[in-house]
Amino acid sequence: MNLLKANSESILNAAKIIKAGGLVAFPTETVYGLGADGLNPIAVAKIFEVKKRPSFNPLILHIDDKSWFAKLTSPIEKNVELLIEKFMPGPLTLVLPKNNIVPDIVTSGNDTVAIRMPNHPVALELIKEAGTPIAAPSANRFGHLSPTEAFHVKKYLGNKVDLILDGGKCSVGIESTIIQYEEGSFYLLRHGGISKEEVEKITGKISNKKPNAEKPNSPGQLPFHYSPNTPLKFYDASLLDESKKIGALFYKKKIDNYNYKMERVLSPSGNLREAAANLFLMLHELESSELDLILVEKIEQSGLGRAIMDRLSKAVNKHY
Questions:
Q1: Distance between CA atoms of residues 77 and 100, nearest Å
Q2: Which of 71, 193, 233, 260 is most deeply buried (CB count within 10 A of its CB)?
Q3: How many Cα atoms sit within 13 Å of 309 on the Cβ side?
Q4: Could you give the 3-state DSSP secondary structure of residue 33?
């Protein structure tokens, strides 16, 4: 059995696997990550192989201590330090110039590296015990739903992972916000667990950088991603068809009288944090219900709503 409850013993075992060049799936506050020694290019190559991830799509290095910034990137400027102090540990990733210690396979040949410090005790202890930054994308097959519970990892990757640490449900439930700092300016590369507005309180106005799908310098820049196997479309009453098994995902409440085979509500109180935490969990439930179609309600694109709509839009794109 390669799925173990996270405790001191299993984390130590997982750290040994990382040190030996193996793969460990572990919980963070955002989603479960598929981790390998981020300074070992052979180990990192296994991530791409197991996930069937394109080699041009870079990874994030996860650290347990801010002192790693001095080793992985060039000297930190004051504006970047303010972000690190405010949001790390937490669901924020910074894209910065990389040092030579970082293998090219991690950055997909880019001269920048994505770094974050997760806010989860299991993740932090694992990185500390491994003694190395852990490269980790989401622990799923490339392009599919992100895992927010350990059994999601088991469903997608099975025994392709040496060990899965079960740390319960991820509290944030969507991936980290990604910010690049370049030539004195900040750029938003991916909406995530910290809203753009929260970041801008520290940085001032942030520009949106147009995604480069051919040569991305961080995860989350491809036009389709995060998708269930079942076709997913934004809610439109014209798509309702009694001859099909249809499921629905609503924001605050059901918005029609249709008899769905399965329906879920992200947050009856309209709380965007609760909605984000439930997004992938409920999409996994709908995916597992042998449906012909999943309809999802659009929500307002403000705060974390932008991150939720980013995930849904990319999931819908895959099925058109």
A1: 19
A2: 193
A3: 12
A4: strand
H-only helix segments in 182-289: 196-203, 272-287
User: Which residue is listed with tokens 């009694």?
Assistant: 242
The answer to whether 162 and 24 have CB atoms below 8 angstroms apart is: yes
Note the pTM of the prediction, 2 decimals: 0.93
Residue found under tokens 């934004």: 234
The set of residues, in sequence order, having a beta carbon less than 8 Å from that of 36 and lying 6+ positions away, is 18, 21, 22, 23, 24, 43, 44, 46, 47, 134, 135, 136
What torsion do the CA atoms of 76, 79, 80, 83 make, to the nearest 10 degrees?
150
The tokens of 85 are what?
């102090």
At 61-89, the pLDDT tens digits run 999 999 999 999 998 989 899 999 999 99
Give Cβ neighbours of residue 318 (< 8 Å, ≥ 6 apart): 143, 224, 225, 227, 232
**Rounded-to-integer distance, Cα 268 and Cα 257, Å:** 17
Task: Please tell me the distance from the alpha carbon of residue 123 to that of residue 6, in angstroms, as a whole number.
Answer: 10
Q: Contact, 320 vs 291, CB < 8 A?
A: no
Question: What DSSP line would sit under 72-121, residue for residue?
Answer: HBSPPPHHHHHHHHHHSSSSEEEEEEBPTTS-HHHHTT-SEEEEE----H
Phi, psi of 14 (to 5 degrees): -65, -40
